[in-house]
């Protein structure tokens, strides 16, 4: 399966900081970075307003970069429950933006991303950032961590997509 | 504060079943039922597709009934974590639909709703349904429970709104 030219948008979801990235698959395992950034919504603002801001930003990215697919981090059922709920609200509006554009969404757990990028499902942030910087041939490490994570998600999808394509039925709606 | 004519949309959020209702405040504590229903999305379908369906349904309701305010159940940090996450995804797209229309959203906990409707924060489903049926002068009990809960949320807001208005600054974005 030739993925050359496939545009993947990587999303590290969050309400306070949401990492967004776009990469394009090149020849073989090569990946070209297209854009990376972080959307922030002020924690003092109301939830509805923050969701609206995040949704608008994600929609602008999708309209500007026209990704073929979105790779997003699966909400992790661990840690502070109210943070998990807040992140899940954010994921709802982010997935909706993709669904409204008929862009398929794939979800990956943090350890799946770490394993795909570094070979180690328990790699730390420093290792992950170093790997992403090297893989994409960046002149400096992407900051903050949310930006690096968004790139890692997009790269993870590029490298896993061929295997997914082999195991999935043609025409099936992708897993989320 | 005279609320007469205020249209409140009540939402009992969920992905498998989402209760939607619209009521209108009448004179004094009187409340007129306008509409009630349940949106279902098939559990076998992908999350993105389910969120899109739910969003479209909620948007249609908002466009059809033009509520002045939305009252939604706050996601409860208890029970099965994956159900909590799924409900939080749903709440994200429901709140977004309201925010996109500039309709303020108020969240209430289950016990706040129970207390407002029945005087007892621990009332059971049967009591709540009986109270809602009586308050709204319905000829039969609303079914399923999600429909009754959506009506209860809307009534709860109607009865709490005068107190909220007294304690809130004019022009402040409502709490969510």
TrEMBL record, chains A, B:
GO terms for biological process: DNA recombination; DNA repair. GO terms for molecular function: crossover junction DNA endonuclease activity; DNA binding; magnesium ion binding. Its cofactor is Mg(2+). Mg(2+) 2 binds at residue 73. It is an enzyme of class 3 (hydrolase). The active site is at residues 12, 73, 146. It catalyses: Endonucleolytic cleavage at a junction such as a reciprocal single-stranded crossover between two homologous DNA duplexes (Holliday junction). Its main location: cytoplasm. PROSITE patterns: RUVC. GO terms for cellular component: cytoplasm; Holliday junction resolvase complex. Keywords: Cytoplasm, DNA damage, DNA recombination, DNA repair, DNA-binding, Endonuclease, Hydrolase, Magnesium, Metal-binding, Nuclease. It is found in: Cytoplasm. Mg(2+) 1 binds at residues 12, 146. The RuvA-RuvB-RuvC complex processes Holliday junction (HJ) DNA during genetic recombination and DNA repair. Endonuclease that resolves HJ intermediates. Cleaves cruciform DNA by making single-stranded nicks across the HJ at symmetrical positions within the homologous arms, yielding a 5'-phosphate and a 3'-hydroxyl group; requires a central core of homology in the junction. The consensus cleavage sequence is 5'-(A/T)TT(C/G)-3'. Cleavage occurs on the 3'-side of the TT dinucleotide at the point of strand exchange. Belongs to the RuvC family. This is Crossover junction endodeoxyribonuclease RuvC. It comes from Corynebacterium camporealensis. The lineage of its organism: Bacteria, Bacillati, Actinomycetota, Actinomycetes, Mycobacteriales. The gene is ruvC.
């Amino acid at each position: 399966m030739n993925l050359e030219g496939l545009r993947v948008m990587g999303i590290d979801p969050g309400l306070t900081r949401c990492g967004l990235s776009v990469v394009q698959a090149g020849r073989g395992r090569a990946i070209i970075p297209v854009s990376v950034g972080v959307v922030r919504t002020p924690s003092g603002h109301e939830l509805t307003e923050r969701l609206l801001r995040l949704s608008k930003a994600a929609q602008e990215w999708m309209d500007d970069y026209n990704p073929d697919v979105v790779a997003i981090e699966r909400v992790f059922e661990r840690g502070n429950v109210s943070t998990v709920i807040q992140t899940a609200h954010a994921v709802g509006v982010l997935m909706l933006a993709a669904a409204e554009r008929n862009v398929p969404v794939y979800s990956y757990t943090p350890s799946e991303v770490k394993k795909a990028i570094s070979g180690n499902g328990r790699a730390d942030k420093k290792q992950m950032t170093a790997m992403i910087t090297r893989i994409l041939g960046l002149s400096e490490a992407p900051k903050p961590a949310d930006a690096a994570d968004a790139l890692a998600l997009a790269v993870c999808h590029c490298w896993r997509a061929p295997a997914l394509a082999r195991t999935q039925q043609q025409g099936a709606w992708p897993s989320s």
